[in-house]
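Re-run with default settings, no changes from the original entry. Doing this only to confirm the output is reproducible before filing.
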Amino acid sequence: MAELIKMPRLSDTMEEGTVATWFKKVGDKVQEGEILAEIETDKATMEFESFYEGTLLYIGIKENETAKVDEPLAIIGSPGDDIDSILGNQTVKSQKLDEVDNSELIKEEPSENSVTKDENLINDDVHVISMPRLSDTMEEGTVASWFKKVGDDVEEGEILAEIETDKATMEFESFYSGTLLHIGLSEGDSAKVDSLLAIIGRRGTDISQHLSGNFDKIKVDDNQKSDIISDENPEIKEVAVKEVSSKISENPVSDRIFISPLAKKLAKDKNIDISSIKGTGENGRIIKSDIENYKEPAVQAATQTTLATEDVHDFKEVGHSQMRKVIAKRLAESKFSAPHYYLNVELDMSETIAFRKQCNTIPDTKISFNDIIIKACAVALRSNPSVNSQWFDDRIRYNNFVNIGVAVGVDDGLIVPVLKNADKMSIAEISSSVKELAGLGRDKKLTPEMMQGSTFTISNLGMFGIESFTSIINPPNSVILSVGAIVQKPVVKEGEIVVGNTMKLTLACDHRVVDGLTGSKFLQALKPLIENPLSMLI
């Protein structure tokens, strides 16, 4: 599915940007992480990288042209994707904005005594830096690493920190020169876009006025201090200030541990104390291989076991990962905004079992029941386009392509890699692709492009013995299919009770798009395809 890329806000005060250079032209292939363009902000010219893989289908802002933040910059997708609807909606919005701009609005001239927001926050001595929006969908960021500590000199263009977004971990450079007077977020802490990130200014500058306005958002703690450098005394002064997170860092800033974002994430996943690891990277930096090769000392493990047995109230708290936050947000929005209802059907799997057994006698072939179900869904969706649909606030999209998302459980939560054009794939091709995508997912090597663009989702818990369950729809899709286990039980065939093999399917539907009759017709078409897979090969 085509992805719209908007003019990003690459600095805390950026309101519009100018495209200095395009490194790709329409029709070029784009890889995730490749530099798309250089964008000139109000402060610097910065490289802007792609968060998607695909073909550059559209360029909305030409070189040397200027546009507001959030205006359409480009579209990346697959050749043949329909981009007219995306551009059409953007055009309508632009026209409405133009109408507002051309209306007879009275603009008051600022008085001599008026002070703008920027003048309140930024003057010759002090520069307040907010959490930047580093991608078009970013709503909050996590500080993965600080490369400067309070009191350090900072040059314009130097890397201040690494910021983890919902899509990637990116370096964030300073637009100012001066001294780092204040750090608003500790490593590992998260905050919304535009929250206070840091303050840079002249050594010795009083920054209390720039912090006072944030007391409603900041927890003040006498045990937590920020550091300001004085001109008269080069030693660090202590001033009462804050930490956005209630977690107090055990290590002072001067003793901070240098670790790559990926290594830090792996250590968090494995519950490894990074203070006990000696890094092998440059300047002692802990890298991925250090975490993978780490072995917990036997004494430490024994101590942990003792604590667990002695304290009946022992527990462990782990901060939310960006993946878990996104899952929680998206599924909560889906559950509480989309009116879910559920349709159930039970299948006779006897012929399917025989079909799979016969297929797997072919050399180098091993298909699963899930592969057969995916293929059957893809075929059924072609004849039921009303189910292969998506809900948007201002429209319903009926897709002419079938992209099936397959839910895969990983340590951090749930990911949904997508089989593009699944209706055009054989069962063997589906099997191979699912294995590859699931492997990449468990190794955390899936790209955003591999997890985007689904039009239908399948969640299968049958391998865990779950007979039936309901799932939450993956927005903006209109349905999700839950697949249960194959169960042996008595069934009636031709008037006799025999041993049968049955499987239950549950289709969750968004009633705003898929009515009961529409959902029922889809299951009616799907049932014989799964029960008799040979019919899909004829």
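The domain at 3-100 is CATH 2.40.50.100 (OB fold (Dihydrolipoamide Acetyltransferase, E2P)). Confidence is low (pLDDT under 50) at residues 91-122, 214-254, 299-310.
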